[in-house]
Structure formats: structure tokens, C-alpha cells
Hydroxymethylbilane synthase (Limnovirga soli), 307 residues
Amino acid sequence: MNKVLRIGTRESQLAVWQATLVQQKLAANHIQSELVFIKSEGDIDLVTPLYELGVQGIFTKTLDAALLANRIDIAVHSMKDVPTQLAKGIQQAAVLERASYKDILVPKTDTTFLDNTSGKAIIATSSIRRKAQWLHRYPNHTIENLRGNVNTRLKKVAEQDWHGAIFAAAGLERINLRPANAIDLDWMLPAPAQGAIVIVCRENDNEAMDSCAALNHQPTAICTQIEKEFLRVLMGGCSTPISALAIIENDALIFQGNIFSLDGISSANISKTVPLSQVANLGTIAAKELLENGGAQIAEAIKNGNK
């Protein structure tokens, strides 16, 4: 490929880090590229909670438009932000090897409030998924909205009268901002595809596809596809507390998924372990089993605006 590949990215520090990583990986394969910065709607509105914006792809649709208008050749996203159905005319080009999929708590000071599940505390997050799982474990806690890029959110933790805030580990670790006192929330199931970076391009753009092919990490691609498939069948988005995690171990795929009521009281869970040779449609199969075992009632209540 002789032309310079145009990489579309949001302007946040994390987004630029991710796009620069792709640029470096392309350079290692002797492919020239340049970054093209594009502001998304999700970056402009930093007040409204994500689950109230009601738009899937809030951080991706502006880059989608730039791709389709041929202003860029590829776009780099945090894969958990990408809708389960890509925009018409756009295809997945590669998924990079996954970083940490975990959520972490960044406490303001001490963490004694975690030792008493019946105690009171104020925790910040904009994620309805994190909110539901946290309230399930700590029903007497109060959840405050937290928006902005990771730098802004960390600053708010220091300034506000909160006990702590929840972040994605990968986001803070990638730009070396994880505080020393941060705690891995091993009990919290992540968002589908959390910790993974995806590259997309226009359909039928064989040059872009060929350029990105070597960057694809197949195990991550398999796991994230199953997680996103699970989310798609459950028709979940930012306004639905749905979690999923697929891990490959010893030629087997271990899958966990759940859906919570908005208040965290009710939940339905699914776990499956299958040989790698039998992972086809696993996300769909797991989602349908979940719906048959309590998930449908929870999803319907959320759809009707109930807790």
C-alpha cells in the first residue's frame, strides 16, 4: 500500500493513545499513516448521563460519518463503545489483543466503607451496568453521575464529596493514570468487549482491510464477538445493565453473562464452558438461555421504564 492511511480518532487522551498504538503497529509493518482528529457527540455533552442520552454509538457515529464521507480510511474505537450492529457500509478490520477487562474502584481516601455491605457511601459512575451491580452488592449506597474523560473524572473524585468512583482498568492503565490505591473489582462482570480496541473501515476497502489484517488478535476477536453477540440478542445498550465476559483457557472458552434490574435488586445469570471447536453462536445460545431463566422479565421491566 503506497498511500498514507488516515486514522480517525476522538481527541481525548485515551482515544489518541489507542489510535497512536495502531499507528505504531502499522509502522512496524511498513505502512504509513496519519491521525485525523474528530470530536464526537459523546465528548461534547459531558453532563447528561450516558444512559439518558439514549443513543447507541454515542462515541462512534461521528467517526462513522467521517469514514463514509471518505475523510478517513480507518477508525479506532474502544470496542465496548461500538454498537452491536455496525453502521451500514462499515466493517470490522481488526481487533487488537485485549488489555485488562476489569472494572476498578478509585477510592477518595480509605476503603473501610467496603467492609460493611449495610453501610452508607457515595460512589460515582455514569455506567448503568456498574451502578446496578454495585447496588446489588451495596444496596444502601448512593450512586452519583460521573462524566468526562478519564483525567476529568479522576479530578472530580478528588474534588467531590464522594467515597470513590468506578473506572475501566484498561483506560487508566493505558495512559499511566491508575492510582496506587485503586482496587480491582473482581466480583463485577465487565461490559461486553471491555478492554479491547477495534479498528473499522469502509466495506469493500480492501487496501485498509489488508493493512490491518496483521494487527488482528484472533483469540480476542473470538471472545469479543461472543460477548457482543450476547449483548445484541438481549438488545442491550448503554441504558441496559448487561455484562459479559469470555475467556479462553486450555482449548476451552469460559463464558459468563448477566442482566440486572436498574436498581440492582433482581438479576439473571448464565455461565457456560465449551470446547473452542464449539463456540459458534455461543453468545446467542447463552442469551436465549438467560432470557428463558428470568432475563426476559428483567429486560421487559427495563423496557417499560420500571426498576
Notes: The mean pLDDT is 91. The CA atoms of residues 120 and 141 lie 5 Å apart.
